[in-house]
C-alpha cells in the first residue's frame, strides 16, 4: 500500500520582525505589551516587505523543504497551497509558486480554509497520493496576513503575522496496514453557520474573539479524539503536539488535555503571532530544524479557523 511520507520541511519568515511595543508605536495603537502577551502569548510578529508576495514566501519555504528532503524540483508533481491571502483570485498562488520554482510538470492549486488551511491541504494531498493521482506533493501554507488587518481595530491587528511553511510529501510503498509511517490520517470539519464570527469583510479581518475562543477548545478536542481513535492510539502515544498558533492559552489547554509536558508542545506564537495557514508548517520546520522532532516521532497537528473550519492530522516522521 502507499503512504505519504514527510520527506522534508521548510519555513520562511520575512526579515522584518516587530515587538508588541514597536507595532503599537508604528500603528499608533492604544494597547500594551502586557495586554497582548498575557492574553495571547504573542510578543513579536514578522511583516512582509512592500512588494514581497505570498508566492515569494511560499516558494522560499518550498526551497528549504526540497533541500532538506534532498529532492529536486523536477520530482514534484503537485503543489497544494493553503492561503487566506492569495496574491490574486487567479492565477492561484500555487501556480505562481510553481513558476518561481521552475516546475513545469504536474498541477497546482490553492485551498481556502483560513487558519485550518494547512490541515485541509495535507488531507487533500495525502488522499491524492494514496490514490496515485500524484507521487509527490509540496503542501504549503503561505500568508501575507498583515495586508488584511484593520489597523484601527486593536482587538485583531495585534494578533497576526506573515510567513510561509511547507512540507514535501512522497509516495512511499509500505508493507501493509500495520506499517506506521507517514501521514496516518487527516480529519476535516466545517460548520458554515458560524461564518460571521471570523471573516474577511470589505477586505479586512473581523473577529468576535470570545466566540472564536469558545468554539476553539471543544472543537479541537473532539478533532484530536477522532484522530487518535481512528488510529487505535491513546493520548500517551503522542510525542509532539504541533498546534495551529493562534493563542498560547488555547495551545496550553490542548497540551493539558493530552497530558503532554510543555516541552512536547511546539510553540512559535510568541515569535510569529498567528500566521494562519502557515503556522503549523512553520512550527514543523522550526522543530525539525533544531532536531526536536526526529525520525519515528508521532506528531499530532490541529487547527481551527474561519468558516468555521477545524481539523486534526496524525503523522509519523
Ligand atoms: N489592547 C488593549 N485592550 C484591548 C485590546 C488590545 N490589543 N484588544 C481589545 N482590548 C480591550 C477591549 O476593547 C475590551 O475593552 P472593554 O472591556 O473596555 O470594552 C477588553 O479589552 C476585552 O475585550 P475582549 O475582546 O472581550 O477581550 P478577550 O479577553 O476576549 O481577549 C482575544 C481578546 C482576541 C485575545 C481573545 O478573545 C482570543 O484569544 N480569542 C481567540 C482568538 C483566536 O484565537 N482567533 C484566531 C483563531 S484562528
UniProtKB/TrEMBL annotation:
<dbReference type="GO" id="GO:0004315">
    <property type="term" value="F:3-oxoacyl-[acyl-carrier-protein] synthase activity"/>
</dbReference>
<feature type="region of interest" description="ACP-binding">
    <location>
        <begin position="245"/>
        <end position="249"/>
    </location>
</feature>
<dbReference type="InterPro" id="IPR004655">
    <property type="entry name" value="FabH"/>
</dbReference>
<keyword id="KW-0443">Lipid metabolism</keyword>
<keyword id="KW-0275">Fatty acid biosynthesis</keyword>
<keyword id="KW-0012">Acyltransferase</keyword>
<feature type="domain" description="Beta-ketoacyl-[acyl-carrier-protein] synthase III C-terminal">
    <location>
        <begin position="228"/>
        <end position="316"/>
    </location>
</feature>
<comment type="pathway">
    <text>Lipid metabolism; fatty acid biosynthesis.</text>
</comment>
<dbReference type="InterPro" id="IPR016039">
    <property type="entry name" value="Thiolase-like"/>
</dbReference>
<comment type="subunit">
    <text>Homodimer.</text>
</comment>
<dbReference type="GO" id="GO:0044550">
    <property type="term" value="P:secondary metabolite biosynthetic process"/>
</dbReference>
<dbReference type="Pfam" id="PF08545">
    <property type="entry name" value="ACP_syn_III"/>
</dbReference>
<comment type="similarity">
    <text>Belongs to the thiolase-like superfamily. FabH family.</text>
</comment>
<feature type="active site">
    <location>
        <position position="274"/>
    </location>
</feature>
<dbReference type="Pfam" id="PF08541">
    <property type="entry name" value="ACP_syn_III_C"/>
</dbReference>
<feature type="active site">
    <location>
        <position position="244"/>
    </location>
</feature>
<keyword id="KW-0276">Fatty acid metabolism</keyword>
<dbReference type="GO" id="GO:0006633">
    <property type="term" value="P:fatty acid biosynthetic process"/>
</dbReference>
<feature type="domain" description="Beta-ketoacyl-[acyl-carrier-protein] synthase III N-terminal">
    <location>
        <begin position="109"/>
        <end position="192"/>
    </location>
</feature>
<keyword id="KW-0963">Cytoplasm</keyword>
<dbReference type="GO" id="GO:0033818">
    <property type="term" value="F:beta-ketoacyl-acyl-carrier-protein synthase III activity"/>
</dbReference>
<keyword id="KW-0808">Transferase</keyword>
<comment type="function">
    <text>Catalyzes the condensation reaction of fatty acid synthesis by the addition to an acyl acceptor of two carbons from malonyl-ACP. Catalyzes the first condensation reaction which initiates fatty acid synthesis and may therefore play a role in governing the total rate of fatty acid production. Possesses both acetoacetyl-ACP synthase and acetyl transacylase activities. Its substrate specificity determines the biosynthesis of branched-chain and/or straight-chain of fatty acids.</text>
</comment>
<dbReference type="InterPro" id="IPR013747">
    <property type="entry name" value="ACP_syn_III_C"/>
</dbReference>
<dbReference type="GO" id="GO:0005737">
    <property type="term" value="C:cytoplasm"/>
</dbReference>
<keyword id="KW-0511">Multifunctional enzyme</keyword>
<keyword id="KW-0444">Lipid biosynthesis</keyword>
<protein>
    <recommendedName>
        <fullName>Beta-ketoacyl-[acyl-carrier-protein] synthase III</fullName>
        <ecNumber>2.3.1.180</ecNumber>
    </recommendedName>
</protein>
<feature type="active site">
    <location>
        <position position="115"/>
    </location>
</feature>
<dbReference type="InterPro" id="IPR013751">
    <property type="entry name" value="ACP_syn_III_N"/>
</dbReference>
Amino acid at each position: 500500500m502507499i503512504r505519504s511520507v514527510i520527506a522534508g520541511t521548510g519555513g520562511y519568515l520575512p526579515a522584518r520582525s516587530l515587538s508588541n511595543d514597536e507595532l503599537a508605536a508604528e500603528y499608533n495603537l492604544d494597547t500594551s505589551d502586557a495586554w497582548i502577551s498575557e492574553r495571547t502569548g504573542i510578543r513579536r510578529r514578522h511583516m512582509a516587505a512592500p512588494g514581497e508576495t505570498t508566492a515569494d514566501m511560499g516558494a522560499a519555504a518550498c526551497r528549504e523543504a526540497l533541500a532538506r528532503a534532498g529532492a529536486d524540483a523536477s520530482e514534484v508533481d503537485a503543489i497544494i497551497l493553503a492561503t487566506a491571502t492569495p496574491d490574486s483570485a487567479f492565477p492561484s498562488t500555487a501556480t505562481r509558486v510553481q513558476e518561481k520554482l521552475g516546475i513545469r510538470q504536474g498541477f497546482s492549486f490553492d485551498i481556502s480554509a483560513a487558519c485550518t488551511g494547512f490541515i485541509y491541504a495535507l488531507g487533500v494531498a495525502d488522499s491524492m497520493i494514496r490514490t496515485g493521482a500524484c507521487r509527490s506533493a509540496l503542501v504549503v501554507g503561505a500568508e501575507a496576513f498583515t495586508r488584511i488587518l484593520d489597523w484601527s481595530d486593536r482587538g485583531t491587528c495585534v494578533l497576526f503575522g506573515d510567513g510561509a511553511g511547507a512540507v514535501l510529501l512522497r509516495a512511499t510503498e509500505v508493507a501493509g496496514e500495520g506499517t506506521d509511517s507517514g501521514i496516518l490520517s487527516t480529519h476535516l470539519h466545517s460548520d458554515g453557520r458560524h461564518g460571521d464570527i471570523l471573516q474577511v469583510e470589505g477586505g479586512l479581518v473581523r473577529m468576535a474573539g470570545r466566540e472564536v475562543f469558545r468554539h476553539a477548545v471543544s472543537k479541537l478536542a473532539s478533532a484530536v479524539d477522532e484522530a487518535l481513535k481512528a488510529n487505535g492510539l491513546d493520548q500517551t502515544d503522542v510525542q509532539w503536539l504541533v498546534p495551529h498558533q493562534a493563542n498560547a492559552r488555547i495551545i496550553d489547554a490542548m497540551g493539558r488535555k493530552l497530558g503532554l509536558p510543555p516541552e512536547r508542545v511546539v510553540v512559535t506564537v510568541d515569535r510569529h503571532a498567528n500566521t494562519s495557514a502557515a503556522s503549523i508548517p512553520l512550527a514543523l520546520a522550526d522543530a525539525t530544524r533544531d532536531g526536536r522532532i526526529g525520525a519515528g516521532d508521532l506528531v499530532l497537528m490541529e487547527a481551527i479557523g474561519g468558516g468555521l473550519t477545524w481539523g486534526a492530522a496524525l503523522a509519523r516522521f
